[in-house]
Design goal:
Elements (H helix, E strand, L loop, with lengths): L3 E3 L18 H8 L3 E5 L2 E4 L1 H20 L3 E2 L5 E3 H7 L1 H4 L6 E3 L5 E4 L4 H9 L10 E10 L14 E11 L2 H21 L4 E5 L10 E7 L5 E5 L5 E3 L20 E4 L6 H8 L7 E7 L5 E7 L6 H7 L4 E2 L2 H7 L16 E5 L8 E4 L5 E6 L9 E3 L18 E15 L1 H5 L3 E3 L5 E3 L1 E8 H11 L1 E2 L2 E2 L10 E5 L4 H16 L4 E3 L6 H11 L3 E5 L1 H6 L1 E6 L5 E5 H18 L3
Parallel strand pairs: 1-29, 4-8, 16-18, 18-21, 28-29, 28-30
Antiparallel strand pairs: 2-3, 5-7, 6-7, 8-9, 9-25, 10-11, 11-22, 12-13, 12-22, 14-20, 15-16, 15-17, 19-20, 22-25, 23-24, 26-27, 30-31, 31-32
Bound molecules: adenosine-5'-triphosphate (ATP) and magnesium ion (MG).
The site of magnesium ion has 3 residues, from strand 22.
Amino acid sequence: MAVALRMSTLYAPTLREVPVEAELASHRLLLRAGMIRKAASGIYSFLPLGWRSIAKIEDIVRQEMDAIGSQELLLPVVQPAELWIESGRWTVYGPELARLKDRHGRDFCLGPTHEEIITALVRNEIRSYRDLPVSLYQINVKFRDEVRPRFGLLRGREFIMKDAYSFHADQQSLQEHYDAQARAYGRICERLDLVYRPVVADSGQIGGSVTTEFMALADAGEADLVYCECGWAANVEAASAVVSRDPRSTSPVEISRHATPGIKTIAELASAFGIPEHDTVKTMAGKTPEGRLVYLCVPGDRELNPVKANTAVPGIELLDDDDFDRFRIPKGSLGPVNPPEGTMVVADTSLRDEVSWAVGANEDGFHLFGAMPGRDFTVDLWADLVVARPGDGCPICGQTLSGARGIEVSQVFQLGTKYSEAMGARFTDENGEERPFVMGCYGVGISRSLAAVIEQHCDESGIIWPISVAPLEVAILPLSDDDEVIALAEGIWKDLAAAGVEVVIDDRDERAGVKFADADLIGWPYQLIVGKRGVADGVVELKDRATGNRLTVSIPDAVEHMTELVISERARFAH
Ligand code: ATP
Ligand code: MG
């Protein structure tokens, strides 16, 4: 017996009006279909239909985790500060970490992620290589006090995540489990009917080096991706694309100084001198943690990638206005020629073969043309500094990259010994020696995935659920209060539930138009329409929400036909 619900009693308050605060389809539709409600910025309640879909995503994730031998547990949301102090993240994490005190004045935080808690758990319990590897996961609420919570469930402050952590004796064992997790993540995306790409990523806050993000492709996504036909794809934050650029200046010229009053940007410089932006060099200023001034030079038409700048010069921070005053350097006229004493000059590798640079003169209102590296100035470090973009060359095969936008639904990381070393989590190996665990961590955004599914599956009328995520599978719409119609609809409702189909009946005293609109809005995969005329003819109508196709089915066949369709559709997304 599957679940059978009645619209007359279902707590699913649908909205006709388009909520003004919601910019994206998923946000609008989750609100309009009565699936979520906002409690505060980035904090939502899940109503029964939203929660049913969340439960389905969780079940898929559970099945895939169990299948690769990860074991479910539950870790606390409120975590003691001591563990975060041990790992070093209490100070590093910043205001995204929500901190609180208990009645004794002790510090705690709301878990934004659970490396600390799980490392502390395991270090007290697993002591021998014989107990390794072990992989543990939970499905739990996370809290991150995001700077800009927005887009409903896509970027919340409180959200649901599946997070898994694995502990290994060596890198090879980690690699095997990492690969298994990555394959499971691919299957999860497929079972949610997401069009996705695994991409090379930056490890950001969590640390470690090897990592892959799973991106659901959608224009609404916040991530910019570049990808190649050869299969390589990357988040532009991390992509080391080959910037295909033949040197524009091949023969050296004399350096010349030009007055450029009022010119502060590359665009202004290029238009004043009638040259393309890519023939100029843009210089940005940063400082090392020790306070040394750093100039970063990139082609005038490219953006500096701060993640790459940080790889080139660890800990670098771009200057703010006060810093410019303190270093006494002119913001709009920086350049690598004669910078202040002790400045480190870093330049993008794509500029290496250029022999004539148009740059700022380090003097307000002046620029230099024809500056030549090695002759007029020294580059201390050549490094990959620019944000990759479509049109650049693939670092693997050299073909031209395409661009897309994506929603990061999940990510896998190899953490190595970052946390086990910091927190003294060790085991004894075969030779009786103590070694830190080699760790991995793996996260799926459960609530974000729900929104990502809607971004890829909706139209003007509402949501179009893949059956694997639909709150229920079939809706029965009796279109009249005629006794015969009601009796038939109720009968089909009971029989479908008995056949194992999740079914809802729209038994509200509403016009047909309202029932149709709500059914399309909520997005039940199938609608069985029971009308007075059809009943007289011995038929009901079956509407497929995704295709819009309508089929007339004879009443005696209706339950069997519907059940078969549901079963075959479910099979497409089965484990
Ligand atoms: P983002 O770059 O989008 O802020 P993240 O890389 O910081 O995300 P992870 O630490 O990798 O996030 O967390 C694992 C997963 O949790 C993400 O892939 C995403 O699906 C989900 N997630 C992270 N932050 C949020 C959020 N603010 N709201 C909803 N889901 C989130
Ligand atoms: Mg991530």
